[in-house]
Fold this protein.
Amino acid sequence: MLLIPCPWCGPRDEREFRYGGQAHIAYPADPAALDDRDWADYLFVRDNPAGRYAERWFHASGCRAWCDVERDTVDYTITGSCGTGAHPAGGPDEGPCTSPYCVRRAVPSGGGAR
Amino acid sequence: MTGRRTGAGPAPDTWIAFDGEEVPAVTGEPVSAALLAAGVRTVCRGIRTGRPRGVVGIGTGEPGAQVRTDGPDPRPMAPATRVEAREGLRVSGLAGYGRLPEQAPARGGDARWAHCDVLVVGAGPAGLAAADAARAEGARVIIADEAPEPGGDARGGGRDAWAAATWQALVRAPDVRALARTTVTGHYDHGEHAALERRGRSDLLWRIRARRTVLACGSTERPFAFQDDDLPGVMLAGAAAAYVRRHGVLPGERAVVAGCHDGALWAAAALHDGGARIEAVADARPRAGAAAREALRRRGVEVRTGTSVLRAEAGADGGVAAALLVSVGPDGTARGEPERVPCDLLAVSGGYDPAAPLAVQAGARLRWSAPHAAFLPEGLPPTTVCVGAAAGTRDAEAAVEEGIAAGAAAARAALGPPVAPPDPVHTGPQGPLAGAPGGGLPEVMRSRGESAQGHGAQGVGPHEDGTGAAPLDLWSGPDEPLDPASSEPVAPPMALFCVTGPETDAARVYVDLQRDAALSDIRAAVDAGMDSIELIKRHTTIGTGPDQGRTCGTVASGITAHLLGRTMDGVGGTTPRPPYAPVPFTALAGRARGELIDPLRRTPMQPWHEAHGAVYEDVGQWRRARYYPQGQEDMHAAVLRECTAARTGVAALDASTLGKIIVAGRDAGTFLDRLYTGNLSTLKPGRCRYGLLCTADGMVLDDGVIARLPDGAYLVSTTSGNAETVLDHMEEWSQTEWPELCVHIFNATDAWAVVSLVGPRSRDVMRRLAPGMDVSQEAFRFMDLTEGEVAGVRARVLRVSFTGELTFEVNVPSWYGLAVWEAAMDAGAAFGITPYGTETMHVLRAEKGFIVVGHETDGSVTPLDLGMDWALSRTKDFVGKRSLSRPDTARGDRPQLVGLLPEDPGTVLAEGAQLIGEDPGPGPPRARSQGWVTSSYDSAALGRSFALGLLRSGRARHGEVVHAVHLDTAVPVRVADPVFYDREGSRKDG
């Protein structure tokens, strides 16, 4: 079980969370304007990297807030977590958000290479 | 009698029963010790061969004596070395398999969660030292050991007093939890560990989250294989010596000791000192260590070097009676003629394997160390460190030094530098967080694969001079003076896995006693072309027994390497997955048994249902009344009666389980517009509207009536048991997609009890029940919501209908649910009010063609498939709308909702029956399925059976005859419109 840093509650056991798949995939502003292929991409197609992955977690048995967590899918290293949508894809680079674990601030301590 | 008590240990103070015979025992000693002391050689039988098997080891690794116990420590299967003798304990040998008790399990279980800075696994010299050092640094420490007493591998070796004192100090220390009889069974992600604590009649399953882990879990002695090495009386040498040193139990009078490292020689000395006659000591190495050799020489025993055991010979009792010693080469091949040496104890030892499974689970690899003749873990992540015998260090003093260094380092790393957030501005919305040393992420979250250093022990590992010098055994006493003439006090161990000669019967060279798997099995696997140890394990079953290859894994690898002509690293070992030791299902289940396996939700009216003989149905977590039989009625008769009452008079349903979610806030209407298929922002307060909820892929997630409360908030009803799903769905979209909308969502399901009054006379009942409420058709229309007093209680009443009949759905605070239900039954008595349950509810709704999520839908059904385009808004977007025009969802040959009328009106179809076109004729039908039956009942109103189903292109096939296949019979059914009753909707107003 992972130990997931909830931006609001601190490190909590994975048992308290529900997984939400890849983060930063916004619901299209005008779904009707998308052709079938683009809509199917939105619905079904997700990245599957061996490495860092931005994903959504829902603190279902805790504060019931969604958050965006950056996790390495190979070794499960968690780089940080932010409130949902704090750093949307393609959004302006505003620097760290208010999360104490913000992915733009967190520097792994004592972890060596990573 | 072959074994006996030496008199050095405590005298027996109790009795245990073994296979019905009384055996004297010392309370707390392992059952194996009592059996050996009583001269019991055969304890159990081989799983496939039925060959007799006795005690082989001590403590953790026991491939031989498997027993079942009853009494104070009931276990269906356990190694005799891990059961403590107690008064009243009944022990019986197993013939291979354990058997679960047929009655309810006698063993209890519970679970506990714990957090610590440093977890120390093992309370031997290294572990005790590590825990003490970590404690001294101020860390919160948990130390766990499998054994009842501390000391680990070194127990009985002159350090017991120190171990006991250190353990007691840890037990008393604040912020230290010392767990005896506790096996850490697995190392999981981010510092999580599972541990099993044995507590007599029950087990405690720990989940321990540790910032740092010190693995001081010791080693396992391994044998080497030879013909008939499974005979009772063939034991591990170190184990045999440990019985003498720890328990004052001598396992045999006349011992032959055979090994390939100095530890076996020290074991021979211990057996001698315990009173055994040492018939021979064989050492496969060309040279033995001088210290051990001299120690034996002083005892009048000469070491035969270059010698080992070719075969054991059985005596009249089936146990070992002699050892055939032979000269061996470096690969264990016999040379020359063997010599027969009579004995009743053949003590063998092939070396010590560091207990590496937890290290491997933490991310380490195993690498063969020739100087240690063992696989050592390396490449551990920085959160985990391996010390002592678990890292290949067999000298107790060195192990203590490693433990101190590792414990202190782990504590400092876990506690981190003084906490200072990296930037005081960037604290969390609720203030700065505790629990993150250095202000960043706890490092356990990056626990794997980050180690830049190669070695797990991080500078405190085994001796690094590469010569293999100084692996002093843990039992070598400081009282043994060295022979000053010897230049080599200790000699490196040799890797010896198997001894064979030209006449050896490979089928009797047992490698895994628990699986009766032999050298011949490995040869057959290799001959068949298998060259992976994982394949060989699966083919031979070696390492799949209760001890999961602890004692035989390295032997199997060594034999395989020899057969394949590879190095040990070229073969490696099998992956040691958790659990490290067997965990009883009773421990995993804990208290989650029987009623507690899942929460049971009861409505406030449950006592009434109970008192009126309701038969129950569990719907999700809810316990609901299914029907109320009267007299000798079966379900069929009761349901027909209840249906008739609802259609012709008045009936009452406890609908409290309906999900009830309040959606409030400025943008509640907009929010629901975006989620639900219909327009809800235009809903006027006091009105209701039916809605469908879809996932983004267009599939139906839920349906229900949405009511607008007088204050403007929405009351969203959901399918029973689906409220939590719908709530999660709403919160997800609210938080992640539309955070700009001001919406508050609250699950009020349990706050309200619901009495549903159904039928043409329900208005009469309402008039009596709520005299102050105008329930006339003019004042209270279909799909209206009214607030007022019902039976003296403030209530919300909805005029919705799930049956087609006039219905008043009375919502009252749960506290009054029972009282209002009873009042309704009183008020309705004059009209013959009939309580009905879920079965009748289903029949009534199905007669009207109303779907139930989970019956007519399964996550692959769209609103169009259900023929519910009328519920879809054309003017606005809603989640899932775009998906309804995808090529796959828009095609015409999808399964569509239909009614089904069996040609024989007396036949009730099986729900789930597949629908096929043509009559398949006799024999099992082979036609391709075109759909399936989703709901099927007998109907009082129709006077016949009927069903709903999903049928390919079904809407265009009304009137057609298809066949419903259940098991091997096909029943002809006519496809029909799914609305069977009152298609005009004329009855909803009474």
Notes: Residues 3-83 of chain A form a domain with the Folate-binding fold fold (CATH 3.30.2270.10). DSSP finds one helix and six strands in chain A. Residues 108-114 of chain A have pLDDT under 50 and may be disordered. Chain A touches chain B through 57 residues (CB under 8 Å).
